[in-house]
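Hi support team,

I submitted a single chain yesterday and got back a structure, but I'm not sure I'm reading the token output correctly. Could someone confirm the output below corresponds to the sequence I sent? I've pasted both exactly as they appear in my results page.

Thanks,
R.
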Amino acid sequence: MGEQSTAKFPQEVVDEYAALGVDLVSMFSAGHLGTRMGVEIVEASADRVVGTMPVEGNTQPYGLLHGGASAVLAETLGSVGAMLHGGSKKLAVGVDLNCTHHRSARSGRVTGTATPVHRGRSTATYEIVITDEDDKRVCTARLTCMLREIDPGAVTG
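Hi R., thanks for writing in. Yes, this is the structure output for that exact sequence:
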């Protein structure tokens, strides 16, 4: 995920996890795939998650941003929002992702912004808009996550 210390979580969320003995900022990650792809979370709350990803290294044979790379960024951002909505007692698991690719990107960074469409007790759905450096829409995605109850002691850093 690159610079994990750049993620900005609401203090009450950090405190909620800290009460369970979990350092959320240290624990949080886009995973190995997100790290390899250069995904960086720059803002995170249940209301809005923003992250970036370089185009370079994430292209298909024509030199364009790979649609699968956009899907990784979208699912990462939507999952973070769903996780923060569910709180420390729920696990967010993606069950549906769809992406519409509007235009290509050849260089620079793309930015994704995830905002909630639905936040319930058992599911959360986020719309993720990915734009290029000129603020032109590259992709629109929608992610639905199931929110499953977990044992708070199972969350580890």
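A quick pointer for reading it: The two ends are 16 Å apart (CA to CA). Let us know if anything else looks off.

Best,
Support desk
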